[in-house]
Amino acid sequence: MEKKDWHAEDIETVLESLSSNRSGISGEEAKERLERYGPNELREEKKITPLEIFLSQFKSVLVLILMISAVFSAYIAIQKGEAMTDTYVILFIVIMNAILGFVQEYRAEQAVEALKKMVSLHVLVLRDGKEQSIDSKDLVPGDIILLEAGSRVPADSRLIEAPNLQVDEAALTGESTPVTKRLDALEKDVGIGDRKNMVFMGTVVTGGRAVAVVTETGMSTEFGKIAGMVQAVEVEAPPLKQKMEKMGRQLGAISVILTIWVFLIGFFIHKHELETMFMTAISLAVSAIPEGLPAVLTITLALGVSRMAKQKAIVRKLASVETLGSTTVICSDKTGTLTRNEMTVRQITYGDSVIDISGSGYAPTGEFTMYGEPVTPQENSDVDLLLRIGFLNNDAHLQESEGNWVVLGDPTEGALTVVGAKAGMGEELKRDYPRVGEFPFDSTRKMMTTIHDG
């Protein structure tokens, strides 16, 4: 399919270009397009197997040197007829080091896979003129999707219908406030954040509803392009691993040079027997290797990973823990990353009075206090009226999901809904004062007005 500036085309032209219509494509056509364009999912790097994770524990230069030392220790013990205690100790350290590293990294990989399964998404589409719920990975260009408040947009799409539609695009653009969408065609050169007639994969509908035609899926979406750029970045080894590899090479080189030097001095100058000097040189080489260092490092890093896990942070590679300590600059998006994109009403001011409100996030629990003394909002007609207006003139919905309180809708309206809930307001109030009219927010009036009967 030819890449187009979908935002610059009118709706009928877009539908025609995609060989679709407002009733959607047929099931057979969807299967054909799925084979042609592939599944609607971000392409991942090849998954690492448990065996590969285990074998990667032996790739360190220090570990390889230890394994070579174990072989030489075994040879010396056999030649002298002694017990192979040193060999067993070295092998035990190497194996325990590998097992500890494997367990930590395997658990991290499993946790990441579990998180991916949790975000599996289903979407409503029109196919053969009927609504169907399908897995988002089965979406294809030309599909007609149906969105409502709380829906996560499954693919880049051109809007066909968008009454009062608002979309939270913070994950893509960093814009903290929801974007109001419209249908008319735009100029070709407008940026992603200004494409008001498009919705993009990974963003969330906060208000209104929409009907849209899918234009791009998978790696062709804006999110897919970002994922492609991230995967194309060459990943450097963590600073600690680089230093350890360097130290391992230096130790190996010094050990070999000294071993050869001692052998030559003893054999040619002091005239010792060849076998004696060979055994002496090998013993010196083995004793120069710090057998306990890899194990100490692995245990220390594993403790760091464990502490990070308690803070709900998954570390996939042990050595990456140390990288955090070497970081000097962190570049991060704010909205939804450093902050939770959750607004909270903390204070109400009316006349000369100020009421403080406790609580955080969207949990409808908190106290109203005035100068440190608890107050009941319903007993003050001004405060009660203010909270009631904010609660009713509002399209956000507060609900509990798996023990967490979430808001479907605009974060600002969500904050007003939550503070109303803290004051004891709920669905009963909306039934007592049903909405009979509405003037949506627009850029001219800069306000939203609702009319209620009651």
From TrEMBL:
UniProt entry tagged with the keyword Transmembrane: yes
Pfam family, one: Cation_ATPase
Single GO term (MF): ATPase-coupled monoatomic cation transmembrane transporter activity
GO CC annotations on file: plasma membrane
Compartments reported by the entry: Cell membrane
Membrane topology: Multi-pass membrane protein
Signal peptide (UniProt feature, chain positions): none
The Cation-transporting P-type ATPase N-terminal domain, residue ranges: 5-78
SMART domains recorded: Cation_ATPase_N
Keywords: ATP-binding, Cell membrane, Membrane, Metal-binding, Nucleotide-binding, Translocase, Transmembrane, Transmembrane helix
GO biological process per UniProt: inorganic cation transmembrane transport
Transmembrane spans: 53-76, 88-108, 251-269, 281-306
Broad class of the protein's primary localization: membrane
PROSITE patterns hit by this protein: ATPASE_E1_E2
Keyword Transmembrane helix appears in the UniProt entry: yes
PANTHER family for this protein: CALCIUM-TRANSPORTING ATPASE
Descriptive protein name: Cation-transporting P-type ATPase N-terminal domain-containing protein
Native species: marine sediment metagenome
Taxonomic placement: unclassified sequences, metagenomes, ecological metagenomes
